[in-house]
User: Fold this.
Amino acid sequence: MDSYKKIFRSYRFRQALLRSLGFIPDRLMTSLQYYVKLHRRIDWKNPRRFTEKLQVYKTYYRDPLMITCSDKADVREYVARQGLSAILNEVYAVFDTYDEIDFDALPDRFAAKDTLGDGAGHAVILCADKEKLDRAEFEKQLRAWVATPHRRPSGGREWPYYSGKKHRILIEKYLDAGSEGLTDYKFFCFDGEPKYLYVMTDRAGDGGPRLGIFDADFSKLPCARRGRRGLDKPAVRPENYDAMLDAARRLSAPFPHVRVDLYNLAGRVIFGELTFYSGTGYMAYDPDSFDYTLGEAFRLPESILHRG
Assistant:
């Protein structure tokens, strides 16, 4: 599915290459990538799969609020407006450039994020010990973040990320979950209602994070995301799971679809991010029928359906 990554191993090179193709219309570029990665064509007129509907959604649906909610710094104001300021992680500072950062003033442990970066691990640096941090690589990475073109189409054609807002550097509190690591709860919400979720663990594992798929009642489903390791032990329903569902409902209410990512650390729900185009819509499932199951929950607005 991702054979092109074996040819172009550098993530930065792949992104630069895709941005150089920004002259290609969104729909055509999306169709090409979907075919290359999933080996099938998008049914633009009658999309039934979740992955197909995500392509229609990102190509034609435009809500300015999505721009705010895609920015890891600006989304905090939206979360607070929904009455959920208590679930926000502590932010130390937001910087427009690397040169604004006083490295010596940073705490010993912190997380650095590209405010408009993807969730694939290329836009987050977790620093558990500042003394052991590779300063040169740290600077190189953060300078690359803020140098990202802010109007040139990205590879996945996810328009909120190149709407004109500049990439900034967010420094926030390091979330320490001990040797077990953080568990990530990613709620797939449709019209304000969480229907399914990923439970992700072992992010530091050599084979990538482990992932299980659950329904909203926290029952594990007999399906998997292709190319991801399954959970190696049963996931325990958090005691305050209902509070997580409530947060997911409030944050997803304005949108036909959004994924609400939350953590649950020592009994406290902590906001992660909002994601409108999970996996850029290029993921595959086992069994393949789960793509249709998710698609059934996703009701695209009539205003964009006729454009297919």
In short: The mean pLDDT is 92. Residues 49 and 292 are 4 Å apart (CA to CA). Residues 26-38 form the longest helix (13 residues).
